[in-house]
Amino acid sequence: MTQVLVLIDPGTSTVTTADLASPQLPVTDLAAHRGDGIFETVLVRVNPDTREATVVSRERHFARFHSSASALDLPEPDRKLWRQAVDRLIAEAIAANPETTEFAVRYTLSRGGDAPRGWAFTVPIEDAIVTARAEGVSAVSVDRGYDAYVGRRAPWLLLGAKTLSYAVNQAALRYAKAQGADEALFISRDGVVLEGPTANIVIRRGDHLLTPDPAAGLLAGTTQRLLFDHAGRLELKADYADLSVDDVLSADGAWLVSSVRTAVTLRALDGKSLSRDEALTREFQRIIAAG
Question: Distance between CA 76 and CA 207 in Å, rounded?
């Protein structure tokens, strides 16, 4: 896939197409050496007949982008400007890749140096993601290093904001792969299941879908909320709950859900096999594809 980049200037409300292969970011930008910024990644589906694009959970993502900006005391993102940037990027990506039917867009707001700056670029869907959707993934549980609900007394930890500071998340994924697993699952020091490094966890227990409360110290998931909004159509109830590792192991099904992977079956945790509900996996993926 030919990737496309646009630069977004919040100060002048302008969007400019740029070369993704050329240097664009000054080393003085606070995103580069402090991770001081926010981002979102959205899935884009392209109708093969009409070539019209659908941005999955577009408004949920922007609402979280807005919330993250507030948490970091960044300027309030201009909805019209960021929508213009994403729409322009999608149009240019489709023109450059006439056969594509699916890709992702990642948009970012940095505190910058002298002034905030933004950018957005396209991300191809890797083969590993397609495989995970079809076959599921395994995970190992890892200690997150703090108790659940610590964010209530330490808001500066930014646990509910989608910041650029992903070094810990990437380290957890490398650790998981070194243990022979595909994914990590963060557990609080007091035994509460939180989230994966780049995904929320959802389990089914009977006719209930359950997911950890974002207030426990995790990112509120746009894909998880999309599924919960449609739970009634699946004759399921949806709730937030404190879950243990045993709750996950004994579930009637478990999934890691995120914008690009959509919903993938969690087939094993800490070397123990989980029950699988592939019919519900397909329903989840269909709901997410519809946006």
Answer: 40
Are the C-beta atoms of 267 and 273 separated by less than 8 Å? yes
Which residue range is the domain that position 175 belongs to? 128-290
Cβ burial of 82 (10 Å; 0-12, 13-18, 19+) is buried
**Nearest alpha-carbon partner for 86 in 147, 52, 128, 42:** 42
- The 3-state secondary structure of 147-204 reads CCCHHHCCHHHCCCCCECCCHHHHHHHHHHHHCCCCEEEEECCCCCECCECCEEEEEE
Handedness of CA 23, 14, 89, 72 (dihedral sign): positive
Q: What is the per-residue pLDDT across 47-91, written as a single tens digit (0 to 9) for each?
A: 999 999 999 999 999 999 999 999 999 999 999 999 999 999 999
Q: What are the DSSP E strand ranges found in the chain?
A: 5-9, 14-18, 37-46, 53-55, 102-110, 117-123, 137-143, 183-187, 200-205, 208-211, 237-240, 253-258, 262-269, 272-273
Domain count, the chain: 2
Per-residue pLDDT at 290 exceeds 90: no
CATH label of the domain that carries residue 19: 3.30.470.10
- What are 208's two structure tokens? 């209930």
3-state secondary structure of 135: helix
The reply to whether 55 and 165 lie within a common domain is no
Q: Whole-model pTM?
A: 0.95
Phi, psi of 185 (to 5 degrees): -130, 115
Model confidence over 212-249: pLDDT tens digits? Answer: 999 999 999 999 999 999 999 999 999 999 999 999 99
